[in-house]
Amino acid sequence: MAGRIEARLAELGITLPVPAAPIANYVPFNVSGKLLIVSGQIPLQEGRIVHTGKLGAGVALEDGVAAARLCFINLLAQVRAATGDLDLVARVLRLGGFIAAPPEFTQHAVVMNGASDLAVEVFGEAGRHARTTIGVPSLPGDAAVEVEGMFELA
What we know:
Radius of gyration: 15 Å
Number of strands: 9
Largest sheet: 5 strands, mixed
Order of helices and strands: HEEEEEEHEHEE
Number of helices: 3
Helix content: 25-40%
Strand content: 25-35%
CATH superfamily: RutC-like
Number of domains: 1
Shape: globular
Distance between the termini: 20 Å
CATH architecture: 2-Layer Sandwich
């Protein structure tokens, strides 16, 4: 029987993918006590990056929001791999967002809401988190967005 969070994902029409393997010399997550830190996830779907380029320079705002949402789905896949059970997440503590954009782009927070809004949709009040969102000149694989996360475990 699916847990509460898996059931919520099903209600939202979300199927978690197989977690992406690291593409360099790092681990996808680390657990220390009740703290789970998940490495940055890009908008991968079925093994390919679906949102590439820069926001405000060829990538539409709504595509950036969708990319951030997909990054959070990929974070959840890593969380499940780390814990075996998403119901073990007591709280989303922090999300960090990296938005590939030119210097004149200023809507980073709107893009990152794609991940933040989904965190709250999935976890309710426990999904409310601290956040940092920054613009960067480029990301791995020309991804438009990357999102990392910290979670408190029960």
